[in-house]
Amino acid sequence: METQYLELVVRATEQHFPVAIPFQDQILHRQIIVIxxxxxxxxxFNGCLSHHKDPDTTERLLWDLIELLDHNLGSVYTRVxxxxxxxxxxxxxxxxEEMLTPGLxxxxxxxxxxxxxxxxxxxxNRNSPLLFLSFMLTEENGITPSDPDRVWxxxxxxxxxxxxxxxxxGLGRKLISxxxxxxxxxxxxxxxxxxxxxxxxxxxxFAENHEAIRFYRRLGMRRAADSPESRHDDVIxxxxxxVMRIDNVTx
Length: 251
Fold this sequence. Notes:
Elements: H1 6-16, E1 20-23, E2 26-34, E3 49-50, H2 55-85, H3 91-99, E4 105-110, H4 117-122, E5 131-140, E6 152-162, H5 171-190, E7 198-206, H6 210-218, E8 222-223, E9 239-245
Parallel strand pairs: 2-3, 6-7
Antiparallel strand pairs: 1-2, 2-4, 4-5, 5-6, 7-9, 8-9
Helix pairs in contact: 1-5, 2-3
Keywords: Acyltransferase, Cytoplasm, Nucleus, Transferase
Family: Belongs to the acetyltransferase family. NAA40 subfamily.
Subcellular location: Cytoplasm; Nucleus
């Protein structure tokens, strides 16, 4: 499923994430990056970047996202990488492999459009992204406590990262409760999945990231049925799983 419906996910993304977002005295421009494969190549359009067709350019831009992630959570990943990835490699290597998972779609916003890729790469600091999301259409169980074995289709939000200058202005709420939610609804319609097949959105959040957890709960998200939980001996899990039923959201 991750790549079977990839073109439909990209179409929904292009429809519901705005090309430009006004922010204070500047305009944040959108860039979509798609991790496609030889088996499921994407016919790119509207400036969407295909990893299969242009791996060099795409990976340069993805490295900018690693830098953004490092700024926000690098110290956390450094501390937990062995437990999270079950190996002793640096977290950036593990995260890089994860970021190249076929089926992932990235939506990146920065102060300059990525249309002239060569020019942008000459001015990477000035054009560095200020925020990004990554997600894919997939199937998961353990979503609802009433039927934890049931398998649902959903959009799994791998990352939502905003640098400090663009936080606290309502952008995060818009990205999830408006743009991503509308994208999820469009994916459900385009793939012809019913309400009984498509759940909505799921994500992972570090248990120590209390601010993010409060944010997700304010959006109406709740812990998934199979989310790790704190134990009676006050042992806190590494992360929680949160889900949002898109029919419960008003956009």
